[in-house]
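Reopening this one. Same input as before:
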Amino acid sequence: MLDTFSRDFDDGVDLFTGESNVVKLTVTNNAVAVVEDALSLTGNHGLSRSNPLERHYRDVLCGRVRTLQDTTRAGLGRAALGL
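Same output, byte for byte:
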């Protein structure tokens, strides 16, 4: 999905907002999962202000703020059901 989206963008294809929201939702959720995995490996030390993982965690969580995740998921559900 990301390969196709980026290829279309590079080729100048008009992209729909819904497509970009799905890509952002997927990338953000994957980034959060990766940083949470790293934090689980480091334990409480990973949440210390002196540890870069703490900043990375805050940064990836902020990715959830700008896209309305529930709206994006509802749109995906409607599209899957043909509504």
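So the earlier flakiness isn't reproducible anymore. For the record, The radius of gyration is 16 Å.
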